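User:
Note these tokens:
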Amino acid sequence: MKLLLVVNPSASSVTARTRIVIQKALSADHRLEVAATSRRGHATRLAQSAANDGFDMVVVLGGDGTLNEAANGLAGSETALAALPGGSTNVFARTIGLPDDPVEATGALLDAIDAGSTKRIGLGNINDRYFLFNAGIGFDAAVVEQVERRGGLLKRFAGHPLFVAATLNTWFRHYDHRRPGFKVTIDQKKDDLNLEGLNQEEKPGVDGMFTVCLNTDPYTYLGTRGISFAPHTTLDTPLAVVTFRSLSPVRLGPVFANALGFGRGQVADSGFIDHHTDVTQATITAYHPVPWQVDGDYLGQAEEFHLRHEPDVLDLVIPLGNSRTV
């Protein structure tokens, strides 16, 4: 099998020793080429070239952002994507059942390749950018922006404490948590609701301060625990769209306790949260430019977002024994 290993040398868990060990393991039974990313968007171009050149698989050693770029380069092609955890959180690699150690994950990946454990999955798409596990609009994207500003060595060594500190700093100093920033409209079937002739302001929707669009669950991880907003959303289902109408700590506390598995209720039961599953399309219209992120990568600000689910667009290597995504 012909493999391209895409390495992000700046990712939190990528070291020279780890890279060498992984290269030797992958090249033992496969034809391997290696490419290192050097700038934002580079992984997308490397993946596109690999697909055009007939590679069977692109293996990504990096964080969720590098993996997202590669997925955007491979979507619609016959070249498969394989993940190896190299970042600080590695949400997607952990979600599909890979060990958090990149060398251990390589062993699991090789077992999956030998067994032919590859599945065609669907992806979320927001403003023509694919995402593997989530896209966020509003508050969480503002947090990601603060984390990226502090990036580099601090992100490599601080990890989750940096995200917690950035969340608090964003809430107090960098985000308007008193007024809604946008309106979320879930597109419904014509049989359910006739929207013809209505402008965006007249269409039914909900005001929000933070919306997360999920292609799979959990939303992210805090330490070893997943933050679960839509437990029945997997790579086999359409999207979940979860909109927070308030950022009050008094209200958020119980919600995140439930999302972490410490509470007795479900996130969907919270009265100030608009929770939809099996979403194929949605529109988000902002009242002013708001931040957005995909798979943990900050993408700037925008005033309108078009969300859709695209089934069967990417071949993904699934670790053996992970029945949840299959």
